[in-house]
Automatic annotation (TrEMBL):
SUPFAM superfamilies: Adenine nucleotide alpha hydrolases-like, N-terminal nucleophile aminohydrolases (Ntn hydrolases). Its EC number is 2.6.1.16. The keyword Disulfide bond does not apply. The keyword Transferase applies. This is Glutamine--fructose-6-phosphate aminotransferase [isomerizing]. InterPro entries: GATase_2_dom, Ntn_hydrolases_N, Rossmann-like_a/b/a_fold. Pfam families: GATase_6.
Amino acid sequence: MCGIFGIVSSSTLLRDDLNRLIRRAEQRGRDSSGLLFFQGDHYEVSRADYAITRLVHEVSPYHSQVVMGHSRLITNGLTDNQPVVRDNVAVIHNGIIVNHEEIWPHIQQSPALQIDTEVINAIAAQHLSRGGEVDGIAEAVLQLCRGVVACALVLPKLGKLCLFSNNGSLYTGHKAGCIYFASESFPLEEVGCDTIVQVRDSVVLDIPATEKPMQVSDRAGRAGNLIPPLTFSASEERLLEYHPHNLQRCTRCILPSTMPFISFDSQGVCNYCRHYKPRNRPRPKEELFEVVEQYRRTEGNDCIVPFSGGRDSCYGLHLVVKELKMKPVTYTYDWGMVTDLGRRNISRMCAELGVENIIVADDIAKKRRNIRMNLQAWLKSPHLGMISILTAGDKHFFRHIETIKQQTGISLNLWGINPLEVTHFKAGFLGIPPNFEEKRVYSHGAMKQLRYQYLRLKAMLQSPGYFNSSLWDTLSGEYYRSFTKKTDYYHIFDYWRWDERLIEDTLDQYDWERAPDTQTTWRIGDGTAAFYNYIYYTVAGFTEHDTFRSNQIREGDISRDEALALVQEENTPRYPNIKWYLDAVGLDFQEVIKVVNRIPRLY
């Protein structure tokens, strides 16, 4: 997924406007980049594995009548980049085509590259070779492709540019006789465009025609690959330990004696059960219908749905579109630990529901470097209460929801957070007792955070490596999560009951993808969960699956026997996911797992 943009002018374009479009496109990803521009009598394509702000400075396409390009967030491709050139067709594409492997035999052709976008070129070329019209290309592509397709397609010999989208993540605007396009409306507003229109149907524009072939150049500047190669080892996998434990468990739920601050009464019932207050008891839906009425718009999007591509946010999006009948824009924050599976599900849902997706991508290399430094510090002094620092980088999710509100002018945000995902033990291992009165999955408040940070500071002093360049990123992210005031902010599952079976059955209708290495559908698009759950199970004998299933027991959703059977499978180490995680942050799998396996057990 990436940000795409372009300017088609009758003369030379405005340098400042192009630079603004480029900077805004970089918000959606900066891992690699590409430009296509008309140079005298031919089109040039320049691609790089570094930021587009650097590439445009090197290429300097400011004297061209036509410039378009993309700033990319890592997706399926390993080495190939955009614009993709094949059969004298050039394509820049925002989205992921989730069925591209099925399309190739259908059109009786073979891919030459590793990137999913290439199939768009092939479909377009085949359509034209069979006598099809240019304005029929979009229909030919969208009939075959599943997943988000928002793209600009260049036909140099015909002198045509086709713009089309199946989810609305593409806009056009006009300024001083020029036509601009971008993945979002905000960049076009910022440069002063008028008549800004969301592209749903195909738009065909005239551009300079030429018989000369496109000249393509590729520039390398990054030492490593942000997408780890899929290399698995049986000897590595055997290092992962998974032993059944004979721990005392609550006789009502399944929490074990190693749960922080747990106690059992004479009947063996734990204090978590005794103090539990039902959380999955929604208020009448009519209340939410009444709340959102004031936000509805006759034109354009009217709400923001924070969107990870996970099970609950996907079902929440389904409810917003199908039940509330709202017109949402989804917002995704990618900090480098969203897996390709998660991104593919984002693409599936947004395409099927025709929903625009705005991405804010952080500096992924930097974020992963932060994780590596903190994990190295943790390995020198393992502490279960400090595991949460490995996921601190994702808390800027809460910061950028405000960015999206400002850029779109939309204030209402509807969150699909599972009310049963309460994990008291993560702070409990740091020394913080459970707050049984807390009504939210995420706790707020200055005193709570100050106490939490004080206890964490004490733990950090045991390993000075924590005091590294990631510290400000960690603290500022937690500030935005816990201290900033949330406005126009509602939880969908405050009004709809969270029902796991119904949710999974509904998502199956969208061909929602599940992980091949586990039966659970929870957190499967999260690159961190398998690793930290392995630590919790190895050292404490339980994971967040045990706490989640215990909450389901208390809600009356499943029996205790069902929960025990489920966690036995769900706590099984997920080698492919753990391998991906450690490769992504640049640490040796065997060295890390051996340290984890040597940590003294709590049982």
